[in-house]
Write a structure and sequence with these properties.
alpha/beta; 3-stranded antiparallel beta sheet; 20 helices; elongated
């Protein structure tokens, strides 16, 4: 960008070059005077494009297409072209995009997404660019509205432009220098040559994209969705394409480049929806670790990300690389999960861990699980479970009283068909919840289901490794 006299865009230059290489739509968002229009017009000059610059807040449809008149055959419509009409354009800049009327936004939608106007193809159009101010009066821009989500989703790259305080001292000095005003941006064809050379690699990668790149795009989309920031299936595919293009034009370390591309590929930045930078960066870290880690670290990462307790159990019992790694995983599980879920899991798998022929956990990990089990089976009050059909009977300190426990009868009924050993351990779980005064009766069903599934997996491993039955967790 500096070679064509544009300064202040060093941080996002890989994104701009990727957009030029892929010829996918680009949207710039920034405050007035940050050089958005200057940048895009300069790019059109450097690439020697037939360029059209429209102010969306002022333009009429006739300005775009010209005046219609019947064709000679009387069966179609033609348009009187002027130097301002869009038909011969190779690049189009739609400025102030979020200030135009809704009907004009709909017409720009077709131009941006399909390179069409009125259903007719724009055969010469290569680049579709737009610029807008941050939406909302709180940003000081009266009439600047959030972009329609469907239109925002059609822009491959959405770049937030740096303001004065974001620039380096060198950039501030270059921007301040008035000698570049009015100069035509020419670089002797170097930008065109650069893009032509990289296009060969880009087309090759489109035919055979790297597996880790596709895995990253898929994982980051899932992770953002779990955080309440939805990427559409089309957007996920576009993210992969963006990553391919950026990889062809930048020498940045791939981890940094992927994060930069992701930040510029989330359309909610333009629609007024919440898109915190922290959430985007956290999703990047999860996805990057998923595709970049190997061996022990990759297994620990997969174990930590798995939300299902039964699947965690399966990973630990059947895929754990070694006991020390298992101990680290269990330590993370105990530290990161709700104590009641950890207790259900510990009661389910502890007998299997104790009697495993090939140890799954090291001594530290086994002691951690044993401590959880001990806390669940040793209570300050003695609990008589009577005939397993009524609420438990407490006798703390010799006094007697009955506790009404919502959901207890349903929990007992759910356990009725279980084997004695499983029922004893589930009883320990319910006892723990009641005596510790856990106020989550609605969660009992989920806890029991987690417990039962984990026991089933642990039982399968036990049956394979030894014919000696395991007793219940020690009381």
């Amino acid at each position: 960008m500096r070679q064509i006299g544009v300064y202040g865009y060093d941080q996002v230059e890989p994104i701009l070059l990727a957009a030029l290489l892929s010829e996918d739509p680009l949207l710039l968002i920034g405050r007035h005077g940050t050089g958005k229009t200057f940048l895009l017009n300069s790019l059109s000059e450097a690439l020697a494009l037939q360029h059209r610059h429209y102010n969306a807040s002022l333009v009429s449809f006739d300005d775009l297409v010209g005046f219609p008149y019947p064709a000679a055959d009387g069966l179609s419509i033609r348009f009187i072209e002027t130097p301002a009409t869009v038909w011969g354009a190779e690049s189009v800049l739609v400025d102030e995009l979020n200030r135009c009327k809704p009907e004009h936004q709909n017409r720009f939608f077709s131009l941006v997404h399909e390179r069409r106007v009125q259903g007719m193809p724009l055969t010469k159009l290569r680049y579709r660019w737009a610029a807008m101010n941050p939406a909302g009066e709180e940003n000081g821009y009266l009439g600047a509205e959030p972009l329609d989500p469907a239109l925002a989703d059609r822009f491959a790259f959405i770049v937030t432009v740096a303001d004065w305080n974001d620039l380096t001292d060198e950039e501030k000095a270059a921007v301040t220098d008035p000698r570049g005003d009015g100069a035509i941006s020419r670089d002797g064809g170097r930008l065109r040559q650069f893009l032509g050379e990289r296009l060969v690699r880009f087309n090759a990668l489109l035919q055979n994209p790297p597996a880790h790149l596709l895995a990253y795009a898929s994982t980051v989309s899932t992770t953002l969705g779990q955080a309440g920031l939805r990427l559409s299936p089309r957007r996920t595919r576009q993210l992969a394409r963006n990553l391919l293009a950026a990889s062809c034009v930048s020498d940045l370390p791939q981890e940094r480049l992927f994060r930069l591309v992701l930040r510029a590929s989330v359309p909610q930045v333009a629609t007024g929806e919440a898109a915190p930078r922290e959430t985007i960066d956290a999703a990047h870290r999860v996805a990057w670790d998923t595709v970049a880690l190997t061996g022990r670290e990759k297994w620990l990462h997969a174990f930590a990300l798995e939300p299902d307790l039964a699947k965690k159990t399966g990973l630990l019992l059947h895929e754990c690389p070694d006991p020390d790694t298992g101990s680290v995983a269990v330590s993370q599980l105990i530290a990161g999960e709700h104590l009641d879920r950890v207790t259900a899991w510990a009661l389910a798998v502890y007998p299997c861990l104790l009697g495993a022929k090939d140890p799954v956990l090291g001594p530290d990990g086994l002691n951690d699980v044993g401590r959880i089990v001990g806390e669940a089976t040793e209570c300050d009050a003695r609990v008589d479970w009577r005939d397993n059909t009524r609420t438990p009977y407490f006798s703390p300190g010799g006094g007697k009283w009955e506790a009404t426990v919502p959901g207890y009868a349903e929990a007992v009924q759910a356990m009725a068909e279980w084997s004695k050993k499983r029922r004893v351990r589930a009883t320990h779980l319910l006892q723990y919840l009641v005596v510790k005064n856990r106020k989550m009766p609605e969660g009992w069903g989920d806890l029991l289901r987690d417990f039962e599934r984990c026991v089933a997996l642990a039982g399968k491993k036990t049956a394979k490794e030894t014919s000696q039955p395991h007793g219940p967790a020690p009381a």
